[in-house]
Amino acid sequence: MTEQGHPLARGAGAAGNAAAEGSGSAPAGGWKPRRPASSEAVLRLALESGGMGVWQVDLRRGMVTVDDRLKDLFGVAHEDGYEFPIARLDRSIHPADLPGLTAARERAHAGEPFAAEYRVVLGDGSERWLAGVGEMQPDETGALTYGIGLIYDITERKRTEGALRRNEALLHGVISNIDANVYAKDRRGRFVLCNDALATLYRTPQEQIIGRAFDDVFFTPEDAARIRANDMAVMTSGQSLRVEEAAVDDDGRERTYLSIKSPLREPDGSIVGIVGVTTDITDRKQAEEALRASEARLRTLLDQLFAFVGVLTPDGVLLHANRAPLEAAGLQPDDVWGKRFEDCYWWSYSERVQEQLRDAMARAAQGEVVRYDVRVRMAGGRLMPIDFQVAPLRDNAGTIIGLIPSAIDIEQRLKAEDAMRLSEARFRATFENAAVGIAHVGMAGEWLRVNDRLCEIVGYPRDELLRKTFQDITHPDDIAPDLEKFEPMMRGELSGYRMEKRYYRKDGTLIWVTLTASLQRADDDTPLYCIAVVEDITERKRAEAALAESEARFREMADNAPVMVWVTGADSRCTFLSRSWYDFTGQTPETGLGFGWLGAIHPADRDDAHETFLAANARCEAFRLEYRLRRADGAYRWVIDAAAPRRGGDGAFLGYIGSVIDIDERHKAEEHRKLMIDELNHRVKNTLAVVQGMAHRTFKGVSGAPQAMQAFEGRLQAFSAAHNLLTRGNWERADLAVLAPAALEAPWRDRRVEIDGPPLMLQPKQAVTIAMALHELCTNAIKYGALSNETGRVAVDWSVTDGPRFELVWRERGGPPVSPPKRRGFGLLMIEQALANDLHAEVTMDFRPEGLTCTIGAALPTAERDTQ
Amino acid sequence: MTGLQGKRILLVEDEFFVAAMAADMLAELGATVVGPAATIAKGMRLAETEALDAAVLDLNIGGERSDAIAAALRARNVSVVFATGYGRAGLAMAGTAAVVEKPYSQEKLAEALLQALSASA
Predict the structure, then answer these.
(1) ipTM for this model
(2) What average pLDDT does the segment A615-623 reach?
(3) Of A334, A369, A488, B91, which is most buried, counting CB atoms within 10 Å of its CB?
(4) Tens digits of residue pLDDT in A577-592
(5) Residue A367 clears pLDDT 70, i.e. is over it
(6) What is the pLDDT, as a whole number, of residue A479?
């Protein structure tokens, strides 16, 4: 301290007291310490100052004495001496600090200790913070005019204080704006600090919070007790505490807070309270709860699924496993951890399974991943199928340090697979046993899968067919029409199609099939393959072709036949007329079909023809018509139209097929023949009449002749009558039912003869002979028998018996008693002999007393005999 | 047989034996036979000139039909019986006239004549 001996040490003028200025003109020079004690005080100050500047001020003179140190602080040149006017030094003081300095001087002038901090601005513009302290001392008059003090440089301190202030501002900003509640409490729980957030939380202004105990208003007693316990723990232990605190907020909702509490220490380390930062984590807690719940669910799910993950040592000792497989097997961790894996309960049901596992672990220990399906034993002994895997666990260097066994429950999968297999089996059965050909066809037409029936249809062995496409065996003309549908279908634009097409069998024969194709899609809807169902319709096609050919043949035949052919439907309408009909009538299909054909029939015959035709249709019976048909040239020709019903396979009436034959020539010939027969008959009868006349002339006047003549005439009449009937039947046949009354004309009309019998056609010769026989029987009855009196009667009847034969019985009753005649007359002889001769008939004449019974039996005329 | 007693009956028949027999039959029945005529011409002359009650005409006289004679007789209101061997066909040709089929008996001839006479009466 060299300054201690420096003259300045005696008269250090303080820079400080502005009061000196205000005191008017300062006494210039001559300042002397009036109290020697003051020198001791200066010395003490100097000793205490430790290098600080020392000043003395004399207010009466307005001068201040400073030492070298002070001159350095004020930037005053050393050569200027040690005493300066106060104002001179004040010029160096920062203007902003002068008012504060002046105020401090005035307080000092009033007797208070002087203390001021102010800045001086040095010649280079730099600033320094100085602090001045001192006191004023009374002079001989008691006035405080002399002062002494120290000035020291506080620039560094001020800089630190500024940084602190900035830090504090920053801290304040942080704690004010932070979302967390920041607070400090003293040992009694009174708030000494709180931020805006806390104020907001408590809905209370910050000023009103400070100084109040936290449990005073803001918490329920229970919450407050827990919080206080936490606070006490911090204060007792001196350790920070991170703790969740629950509290009910003003709205009654449970809130959860995370608090970080630290002890609040005095500079001496004593703990005076706590500092806390508390964050509301209710929402986070809820999210965590939700997560936990979801995790629990997931875990439950996983546990149910029996997902197993464990860790094994390389030699197979179970170190750890997740909970699910333990629980599923009813095990505690201690039951299995540390045991050899294959010895665990899960595998205990089978040595083979244990062996398999041992082997798998050994292979995994060599670096292999081994995977297989196996069953594990569950609680209660049930075996559950799992997909099991054991894989090596390696460290960073690649060394195998353990094994990871894992497994998942595949029970559901297996069930699904079983169901699939069943369905597959069913499908396969259907596929293979189908009566139709079934195939799966790929995108390019390749056979992917074919059933036996398809192989049969196309005649290829399966393996050979599977190397082909459907195009390979399709008739060239059918490939394009097929692909026209197949390709869009395989693009998914068409769900299926159906067509008739031809395949070539392996042996080269061509077959017809019906193809029904449909698209099989994958689960994601993309086209997969085509399902083709193939039916062999070759036979049907052949039948169709045969039918078409048969129809064509019919048409050709009908068109070229000498007869006209027509066909009608069940509705009676004509659907077909042969070309010969059109050629004959000049009709066209337009004018002839339907009912148009009637228009070609002669008007006189048309109605009958129409009526007969409709009546036959109503009964579905065959019919035959004769009518005149107009020819294209307008001439009418007689035709026979004969028709037979057409019936379907089930017997249903389908209409008619008919033929029309031109019989005009025959018809005319018939007419002619009738005419000829009539003429012949006429001539025969004329001749008979002449014969009769000749007999009449010949026996005229002869004795006994009239009776004979009468018998002769009767016979001639009967003969003639039979001829008449035969003429009516064109000399072909005569009906006995007509012939008999004619032969027995008069007695029959007189009701003395009863005639009964079915229609029976007789040949001309038979007819004449029977007519003559009946005439003779009748003549005999008139002369001798039942017709010879007034009461007798005759019954004539005949019947047809097997053979065929007919039997005619002539039975007389009611006549005079009969005895067999002694001599047969011509009549009876004629009956017996002529019948036997001409008819080969058996005749019995039974002359009973009650009357003659004559029985005539003969074979029926046959068709052959009819043709004589 | 009284029905024909005194009746004048024209007989036209080209067959001699038949004509003779018919004349006998009519005579026996009490009738007076006019003719017999064997030709259409003679029959026509008699039919136009003689007083007649009835006539028995053979339908076919030498290949010619006796319709003209029948017409002339009907014009004079004389009943006509056709005698014919034509049967049904002959009946059709005879129209509404009475017919007796050849060969006929005396009874049938008388029957036919009486029927004709009553019809025209």
Answers:
(1) 0.86
(2) 86
(3) B91
(4) 888 888 888 888 888 8
(5) yes
(6) 93
| Cβ-contact A159, A124 below 8 angstroms | no
In the beta sheet, which residues pair with residue A33?
none
Is B102 within 8 Å of chain A by CB? Answer: yes
Q: Are A828 and A843 in contact (CB under 8 A)?
A: no
Determine, for residues B105 and A713 on separate chains, whether the beta-carbon distance falls below 8 Å: yes
Q: Which of residues 703-722 of A touch B (CB under 8 A)?
A: 713-714, 716-717, 720
Tokens of A425: 């089996």
CB within 8 Å of chain B, chain A residues 632-691: 674, 678, 681-686, 688-691
Residue A446: Cβ-neighbour burial (10 angstroms; 0-12, 13-18, 19+): middle
Question: SS3 for A499-532, per residue?
Answer: EEEEEECCCCCEEEEEEEEEEEECCCCCEEEEEE
Tell which residue, B43, B41, B53, B48, has the closest CA to residue B8: B53
Name the nearest CA neighbour of A89 among A59, A117, A66.
A66
Q: How many CB pairs under 8 A join A and B?
A: 75
Q: Does B107 touch chain A (CB under 8 A)?
A: no
| Residue among A682, A684, A696 minimizing CB distance to B24 | A696
pLDDT at A6 over 50: no
What is the predicted pLDDT for the residue at A171? 57
B64 Cβ under 8 Å from any chain A Cβ: no
Give the three-state DSSP class for B42: helix
Q: Which chain B residue has its CA at the smallest distance from A697's CA?
A: B21
C-beta separation of A753 from A747 below 8 A: yes
Contact list in A for residue B89 (CB cut-off 8 A) is 674, 678
Q: Are A482 and A470 in contact (CB under 8 A)?
A: yes
> Is A696 in contact with B105 (Cβ distance < 8 A)?
no
Residue A718's nearest CA partner among A775, A783, A767, A770 is A775
**Min distance B13 CA to chain A CA atoms (Å):** 11
Residue B92 burial (10 A CB sphere; 0-12, 13-18, 19+): exposed
Question: Which pair of tokens denotes residue A246?
Answer: 């629950």
Alpha helices, H only, A203-305: 206-209, 214-217, 221-237, 282-305
Interval A211-230: pLDDT, tens: 888 777 667 778 888 888 88
Query: What would the two tokens of residue A661 be?
Result: 């034959």
- Alpha-carbon distance of A54 to A56, in angstroms, equals 7
What is the Cα Rg of chain A in Å? 77
Cβ atoms of A191 and A166 within 8 Å: the answer is no
Span between the terminal Cα atoms of chain B, in Å: 18
DSSP assignment of A528-563 equals: EEEEEEEEE-HHHHHHHHHHHHHHHHHHHHHHHSSS
- Does the beta carbon of B28 lie under 8 angstroms from any beta carbon of chain A? no
CB contact under 8 Å between A686 and B15, yes or no, is yes
A322: nearest Cα among A338, A305, A310, A340 = A310
Per-residue pLDDT tens listing for chain B (121 residues): 458 888 899 999 888 888 888 898 898 888 899 988 888 889 899 888 888 888 998 888 877 888 888 888 888 888 888 888 775 555 555 566 788 888 888 888 888 888 888 876 5
Q: Do the Cβ atoms of A389 and A407 come closer than 8 Å?
A: yes
Tell whether B17 is within 8 A of chain A (Cβ): yes
Mean pLDDT of chain A: 78
B63 to chain A, any CB pair closer than 8 A? The answer is no
pLDDT of residue A473: 93
Residue B16: its chain A contacts at CB < 8 A? 693
For B89, which residue in chain A has the nearest alpha carbon? Answer: A678
